[in-house]
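[step 3/7] fold_predict: job queued, chain A
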Amino acid sequence: MKNLLAIFHVFLICYTPGFGQSAGTLTEDGAWCWFSDPRAIYSSKKNSQVITGWVTSSGDIMAASLDIKNGRIEKKKLYTNLEKDDHDNPAFLELPDRRILTQYTWHGGSAQGMGVIQNVTTQGPKVSTFSDSVVLKPTNQKLLDRFKRETYTYANPFLLSSENNKLYSFGRWIGFKPNFVTSTDNGKTWSDPVVIITSKELNTNNRPYVKYFSDGKSRIHLIFTDGHPNAEPLNSVYYCFYENGAFWRADGSKIATIEQLPFHPSDATIVYQATPTTGKAWIFDIVVDKKGNLVVAYTRYPTNDNHQYYYAVYDGKKWNDHYLIDSGNWFPQTPEGKMEREQNYSGGFTIDPLDPSIVYFSHEINGVFEISKGQTSDMGNSWKITPVTRNSKLDNVRPTIPRYKKPGDKSVLLWMENKKYVHYTDYDSRIKFHISAP
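[step 4/7] structure written:
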């Protein structure tokens, strides 16, 4: 058996994949986090452009378009010297008139600035036409009196066509908790914020982490945790969705109307209940397949140096929760003699939004983080794994597939390649891409 495993391992290492019809580098200087999303989107025209963005090593916020047909790249600086912090990456939304809205934040805010920053193109998806930056502060005194803390991190903009194209934007704002605001005029003005999830007894150091997915029509899906895995010894994974003025569990039972918010994590559907044996968790992605099944990608940590990827599918009755692979250790390069500050920074895990049976993930092979493709035909019970990168000298992490992929679109995969990554404020990374046939 060991010999067979060794042969298989050699095959993986030596095999050079034919994933990309074209591959390249979007930028030599760029990084991103995975909680401001979509950090990349397809434009509405088939095989036209991917719109994305990043934070440079000097703290500039950049937007870019990648022409899927010819690989042409166009870039625009949105904000100069915001701060050197990969949490500040922009997230994107295409408006009904094809203009692109982007939002991003400082990481928490400081004397330099605080709030949600927004830019909108004047000519469709042409990134060179992004407007000057506008700073929004989603707050009101009543919320501050109740939730005590004002801080702004992450932005996640979406549009619901069934609500007359109302915009929703989510982030970690008032109370250090998940909030949302809405707009009925394509982002010109925004409502007061609403706090969605909170601890049972208000703890302004507790911060649930949330990943979102919208069908663009009537629903916005959320997976979230009790808090940060560094702070919560038993960090579990929960699910709910927003629709028609209320938040709902996976089985369709109501949690709360908007007027009844916030709710507590335990009020939602449990995807994974953490235990001392199986370990705390963190989250990476959620999509919905063609049958309406929920598909979730998350990480378990039996120990901080043992990261395990899991893939869970809700089939309408139960969660089918399956182990995918050990991904190795954390990827930040811990300075010698220092304790790692971000022990739960796994390589990254993303789901193809058009075909959730396909995933891409970063895992450690021979001391380097590489990207692999996984494909399942049985809700994650078994996997065919093929290489995307191998024999790399630098770590490849945080892969993502742009949202709003359409049937017939070529597949675009984006990821970070780290020349250096010590901390989210100390990095030197580039953004890579692969384009392949549908």
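[step 5/7] annotate
Residues 1-20 have pLDDT under 50 and may be disordered.
DSSP finds two helices and 30 strands in the chain.
exit 0
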